Amino acid sequence: MQLSDDRTQATLAINKTLTAPEIENLIRELAMLRSQMTPEVTPAPQDSNGSGVPVMSQDNPTLAIQYPLEDAHVTVYLRSIGLGWTAWRLHPDTQRALAEFFNSRLPKSAPAKSKPIPFR
Q1: E strand or H helix at 50
Q2: DSSP summary character for residue 112
Q3: Could you tell me what percent of the chain has a pLDDT over 90?
Q4: Which of 9, 48, 76, 114 is disulfide-compatible with 4, CB 3.0–4.6 A?
């Protein structure tokens, strides 16, 4: 893989059979390459009117949470059936905003479900 000098194009050469782990590795490498390209990924996903960029949607993704005691950041890992695992390192302000949002969306009568098992 090679990125053009103006960062608007990438040259790829793939002519082989790949296993699932090799595809996952290729996806990661392509994502890293895309992160260096211009224009940047649009800041908004596709909305109900069709504006924005289409997204791959998955119900009930598997997730794991890492929260080292010595760090205020929390890392949330989401497992996509097509993209593999992605990690999102969340600042305390983002954690607080997400907690407020999710708590405001919970039905008052909803029974408490079991929490995902975090790891350190």
Answers
A1: none
A2: P
A3: 59
A4: 9
Instruction: Provide the H-helix boundaries in 13-91.
Output: 20-35
- Dig out the tokens for 90 from the structure: 């969340």
Q: DSSP H helical segments within 1-120, as ranges?
A: 20-35, 92-105
57-95 burial code (b ≥16 CB/10 A, e <16)? eeeeeeeeeeeeeeeeebbbbeeeeeebeeeeebeeeee
CA distance 78 to 108: 27
**Residue 9 scores a pLDDT above 80:** yes
**Which helix (H) or strand (E) element contains residue 60?**
none
**What's the pTM value of the predicted model, to 2 decimals?**
0.72
